[in-house]
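Example 246, ligand phosphoenolpyruvate.
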Amino acid sequence: MARRLIAGNWKMNGLRADGTQLAGDLADRIAAEPLTCDLLICPPFTLLADVADAIDGSGIALGGQDCHGAAKGAFTGSVAAAMLVDLGCSHVIVGHSERRHGLGEDDETVLAKAAAAQAVGLTPIVCVGETAGERDAGSALDVVSRQVRHSVPANSGRLVVAYEPVWAIGTGRVPTSDDIAAVHAEIRAVLRADRPDAAAALILYGGSAKPDNAAEILAIDEVGGLLVGGASLTAADFWAIATSCD
Ligand code: PEP
């Protein structure tokens, strides 16, 4: 089985001094105590260059929080996947719910972004997840499998999927272990059936993962790691989550 991945999504937080300090703290910790999982941090675009320097040689991977679906061109304010590679990124988050629901990105847009990432050698972390209303209506599995079918490129050698129920992000609410297991099993089944090249892709859970629930979530079948938002902004918390893989 592939090593598990603990990924930190810093969202729109941090100035250069904060970001460099947080990344440097993590680099110091990993130098002193190697992990059994892989660590990835996804700072805002403005911090990528500084954070790349701070984690250089540490083994911590760097990722973007988004990229455009086109290789380059007249897209003011956007960032191309190749620009992320140029700054040392290996991963990029696409389809985060704050973009799907906050900025109206649909599956087609997410698919284009994931394909653009793969085209330049980045691993897209394709986020999927149901809203509270969809879960209450009993359609969580349908929604998630539709999102995977329509947002993951057809030939996907390089892929991570993150199951992030919208209602669990930043709320302190976490699905039951059975519900997480059911959705992860559904994602695995869709990948095996429709994306055989990516059948073994890591499937992360994201949504209010914290030091005190990480070990329990990581013990669930098919959970290949965590995508962590709020708790990735504090080195001690993110580190405690990462050591929960041991
Ligand atoms: C996220 O934004 O991807 C996330 C999981 O956030 P949080 O951990 O804060 O719920």
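Summary: The chain has a mean pLDDT of 97.
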